[in-house]
Design a protein that fits this description.
about 400 residues, alpha/beta, TIM Barrel, 2 domains, binds magnesium ion
Length: about 400
């Protein structure tokens, strides 16, 4: 089998009317890189990577008239990776991944306005498309290809964002709605207000939902170490399943380790680790118990499997960030796979809501992976035309 063509499509959704805030920043517009790899045997692989791993210049630029021009990761796929990929057997994933990764050594990226985040996002999109081809050529879902036997994957819902005018009572109602949807694990944002105010928010949710529901807390790197330790101690009586990214980005290993050793709450991190070496530091030195490596933000499935191997040695669980339609396959396949992240509505995750004409459903808090080859998803061509720009 040989690769005959590669497409890269920059998808953009506008920011929601009422912004969702995490500790330090609002969730802005949403973007996604779609990669389609065509072969001489009629199999097409679909890959996705999301834009937050590719900050400025991101996967697109707007000109002064607001028109979108593909840039960053999607341009890298077409200008740099496509010539490398044409003619290769797409099933040689390790070889291809290694060739792509070596581009990080190249000078000239920064002069083109691109950096490693964009390269790693481009690699993610290509790698995920290659795994789709591998599954389709074997007529197996990826989770089966990886050795998994179940297609039902536990999932949690992420909510509890800060929004203008939102009260504690609104937050409690929001969480009760997730229980009505069938979820039994909820992740809430903290760190945008004082530790005392956040404690009141989370305590109200715990008191309303009882002790049978898992609550996780996500700080999105919002605290310094001392505040993180204080918050962790304060939240301990509320029976928290994990505390996520509690400290600022610049102290996310040694500082994180101090937090981890000061609390009984398990520490989660890894969505911001762009490769296995940064993941290794979190596992060996950061004191994490839950790894959230995001292969759709950076590096792809090939790298995620290496991270997962390190996790298994150190008794760290894998709960990947975002994109359950992809990460569900890994969690289903691996014994250390714990749970995947989902969002309750198109406001917060328009990609899940709109991008696919076929995708798995969430039933009673479990993602039901489809018994279809590859990732088992089909893209909605109308949405590609409406939201996408081909590089
Ligand atoms: Mg997070």
């Amino acid at each position: 089998m040989k690769i005959t063509d590669v497409e890269a499509i920059a998808m953009v959704w506008p920011a929601p009317q009422k912004q969702f805030w995490t500790a330090l920043r609002p969730a802005g517009g949403f973007s996604e890189l779609i990669v389609r790899i065509h072969t001489d045997q009629g199999i097409t692989g679909v890959g996705e990577a999301h834009g937050s791993g590719a900050p400025f210049p991101g996967i697109y630029k707007r000109d002064n008239n607001g028109k979108i021009h593909p840039d960053g990761a999607s341009r890298i796929v077409i200008d740099i990776l496509k010539p490398m990929l044409i003619g290769q057997d797409p099933r040689n994933i390790e070889k291809i991944w290694d060739e792509m990764f070596k581009l990080n050594h190249s000078v000239g990226w920064t002069t083109a306005g691109w950096g490693r985040p964009q390269i790693m996002t481009a690699i993610a999109g290509v790698d995920i498309a290659l795994w789709d081809i591998k599954g389709k050529s074997a007529s197996m879902p990826v989770y089966q290809l990886l050795g998994g036997t179940t297609n039902k994957v536990p999932c949690y819902v992420t909510g509890g964002y800060y929004q203008e005018g939102k009260t504690i009572s609104d937050l409690v109602k929001e969480c009760e709605s997730y229980i009505d949807m069938g979820y039994s694990a909820i992740k809430l944002k903290i760190g945008h207000v004082s530790v005392e105010e956040d404690f009141d928010r989370i305590r109200a949710v715990r008191e309303s939902l009882g002790n049978q529901i898992d609550l996780m807390l996500d700080v999105n790197e919002g605290y310094d170490v001392e505040t993180a330790i204080k918050a962790a101690k304060k939240m301990e009586p509320l029976d928290i399943r994990w505390l996520e990214e509690p400290v600022h980005w610049y102290d996310c290993v040694e500082g994180l380790s101090r937090v981890a050793s000061s609390t009984i709450i398990p520490i989660a991190s890894g969505e911001s680790a762009s490769n296995r070496w940064l993941a290794r530091d979190l596992i060996l030195r950061g004191g994490i118990q839950v790894m959230q490596f995001d292969s759709t933000r950076s590096a792809g499935i090939t790298e995620c499997l290496k991270v997962a191997s390190m996790c298994s040695i150190q008794n760290v669980k894998l709960a990947p960030h975002h994109d359950p339609q992809i990460h569900g396959h890994i969690v289903a396949a691996l014994p250390i796979g714990e749970i995947v992240e989902t969002f309750p509505s198109g406001d917060r995750d328009p990609i899940w809501e709109e991008l696919f004409s076929i995708r798995p459903e969430i039933v009673d808090g479990k993602l039901q992976l489809l018994d279809k080859p590859g990732w088992g998803v089909e893209l909605d061509e109308d949405i590609l035309e409406k939201r996408g720009t081909w590089a």
